[in-house]
Amino acid sequence: MLKSPQGLQLFGGSVALGLAARAVVRSLSYSPPEVWKPKPALGQFAAINKPTAGPQKELALPRGKHDFQLYSMGTPNGVKVTILLEALCDEYSSFDYDAHLVMINGDQFGSEFVDINPNSKIPCALDFSTPTPTRLFESAAIMTYLCETYDKKKLYFPDDKRTEIMNWLFWIQGSAPFVGGGFGHFYNYAPYKIEYAIDRYTMETKRLLDVLNNRLGGKDKGIFAGGPFIVGETVTIADMAIWPWFGNLCLGRLYGGSDKFLNVEEYAHVCKWAKMMSELPSVARGRMVNRPWGKDEEQLHNRHSRADFETNTQDKLKTKAE
Ligand SMILES: N[C@@H](CCC(=O)N[C@@H](CS)C(=O)NCC(=O)O)C(=O)O
Question: Domain GST C-terminal: where (predicted)?
């Protein structure tokens, strides 16, 4: 591994090295112009985004046979919703849904996707159970809608806990960008390591882990604190929304070796909760839906029925194709 005089690490490979080295040197002497202008982006993910909104190509979306159609990918924001959908399937035999994989390497800018989500991010959904189809975007909005529409027993968003659940839902919506777009981006995806950015977002991510640790361990003086779940004795959409980010971080499933880097063992209550959540059947299945990476047996690209977990995971599809 090479290091620049300022201690910045540069990755190997001569072309990449040249580009990265130039970018490092440029960024060290960067003073912002009066008006910013877009330039070719370096690095994974950055290149697909532009500073403009709206569709970039004509692209129709598939539609399955159920009322509820999800368009998503198995990233943490997508998994929040598929955990809840699987929990609803477990609880209500009449409920089912279709989940279509949308690869966020450009298909989030397809015309029909943008009609549902003008912000071009997964997850988004259409509900055909209403007189005219209801469009849904933003994971937390989708979750509250699903509970209000389909969770007749009010298990996951109960009235007496509603306000505290909303507190935690808004908390994760506001915090996740510091973890994903901040820590994860600069620690894992950025084309070169910037100590200032990594330090800043690592500090914030650890602070957020401590907030959760206090909550689950009972130091938080708020209502329904002290675990075993985020809002008391039972699983709610607060757990389902927070686990894909902070649960996965503690389980070492996000951003390479970041669990060690963040020293997640310091947050014992969060680690215990993360493991407990990961053992719930709805969580184990939810994280497989629309997942295009990892072990073949844990990838269910498109989900149309409960039986798909037995018959249509990638390992099974590959065996059928042979
Ligand atoms: N606040 C949104 C965030 C959604 C989001 O950032 N989705 C990411 C994947 S985790 C995405 O679609 N990225 C594609 C892109 O940035 O173009 C939510 O909770 O639904």
Answer: 158-296
Number of Cβ within 10 Å of residue 159's Cβ equals: 7
pLDDT at 40: 78
| CATH architecture, range 159-286 | Up-down Bundle (1.20)
Residue ranges per structural domain of the chain: 1-26, 68-150, 159-286
Distance 81 CA to ligand 1 centre (A): 13
Nearest to 109 by CA among 58, 149, 154, 177: 58
Q: Ligand 1, residues 48, 101, 122, 245: which to mutate, most atoms within 8 A of Cβ?
A: 122
CATH number belonging to the domain at 68-150, selected among 3.30.497.10, 3.40.50.720, 3.40.30.10, 3.30.450.20: 3.40.30.10
Whole-number pLDDT of residue 12:
43
Between the CA of 5 and the centroid of ligand 1 the distance, in Å, is 36
- Element holding 154 (H helix, E strand): none
Residue with tokens 């008391």: 232
Q: How far is the CA of 321 from the centre of ligand 1 (A)?
A: 33
Which residue, judged by its Cα, is nearest atom 13 of ligand 1? 121
Distance CA 40, CA 308 (A): 41
Mean pLDDT of each 10-residue bin along the chain, 322 residues long:
38 57 73 91 71 96 98 98 99 98 97 98 98 98 98 98 98 98 96 95 98 98 97 98 98 94 98 98 98 98 98 96 90
pTM listed for this prediction: 0.92
CA distances for 17 relative to 46, 191, 194, angstroms: 18, 10, 15
How many contiguous H segments (helices) and E segments (strands) does the chain have?
Answer: 13, 6
Contact 286, 82 (CB under 8 A): yes
